Hints:
Layout: H1 25-34, H2 38-49, H3 57-70, H4 75-80, H5 83-97, H6 107-122, H7 125-137
Helix pairs in contact: 1-3, 2-3, 2-5, 3-5, 3-6, 5-7, 6-7
Amino acid sequence: MSQALGRPAKAYLLAPGIDRLMPFLPSLQTLAVEGSSHFVANVTLNLLEVSPRSPHVPFLLTAAIAWTAAFPNATDFWIDYAIGRRVCGLIEATRRAEPALLAVNQPLREDLNRLLPALIRLGVAEAARLEHALAEND
């Protein structure tokens, strides 16, 4: 990740490098959860957006739930900085690639059912669309 003064952080990792990310996720999860901030959320999402993968969804959901606890009413964080849109986009991309991953009887669905109402309450339109799409597939 790189950040020049005044410019947002950018991921320099290419899609093939994402295959080697799994061993680092526990450390990155600690950072994302304990260091909840706009910068950490942005860098985390930049990394995951390089090549969305279903094994990264538990990490994403854990981080996003921690961010809802840290920023429960911060519409600037979720909407103005597009964190909510980006989280939902990553979830949707992996849901399309592997529909059974977030099916109603899957363990990750409980976390998603905690996250989406919080985002909907904050006004993240993509969360409402995702919740509707999930309900249609149940």
